[in-house]
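Notes to self, Hydroxyacylglutathione hydrolase GloC:
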Amino acid sequence: MPSTPRAAIIPVTPFQQNCTLLWCEATKRAAVIDPGGDLDRIRAAIAKAGVTVEKILLTHGHIDHAGGAADLRDALTVPVEGPHIADKPLLDSLPETGAAYGIDGAKVITPDRWLAEGDTVTVGDLTFDVLHCPGHSPGSVVLVSRDARYAQVGDVLFRGSVGRTDLPGGDHAALISSIKTKLLPLGDDVAFIPGHGPTSTIGQERLSNPFLQ
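result:
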């Protein structure tokens, strides 16, 4: 029987980004997905869940998702995996972007492992398939547990909306293509945690998301 994933959403930064603490119930091994900042809040959630963080995962390189990754990596001494290497320019410019948005202390982060289409990521006994879904950013990735019918989609797709594409490297046509060719085929029963706002399912978005009609 496949292990069960558990998740706690920790809103961080002035952008209220959904940092996710994801763990394997069987092993209590965890990953922190998109630690944009507010590390005290993240570490409190780790302690409350009683889990051991074994890695940090990044869905893409924007400040509200990656701004705290370097400090959290140093604090926990764990590797960083993701996003796709196409987001390297975003990760390299995190200090400047942070200053522009009034987010102090963001540091450049170089992942220990870049992720690409077809890769897999493990958290405890859980396995996630990596989908490269450019559009919101060139290197955005989505992590899918086909066993658990669950995905972490970053800012690719939201309940009732899609990721913004007016930032550097954004491409609306590419984003819609990523959603229609990679996310919708996952199946209507797949639930997802997005980078902002409430959770949803692929089926709900297929039916009612105005950007997909």
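- The helical segments are 39-49, 63-66, 69-76, 88-92, 94-101, 172-183, 202-208.
- The mean pLDDT is 97.
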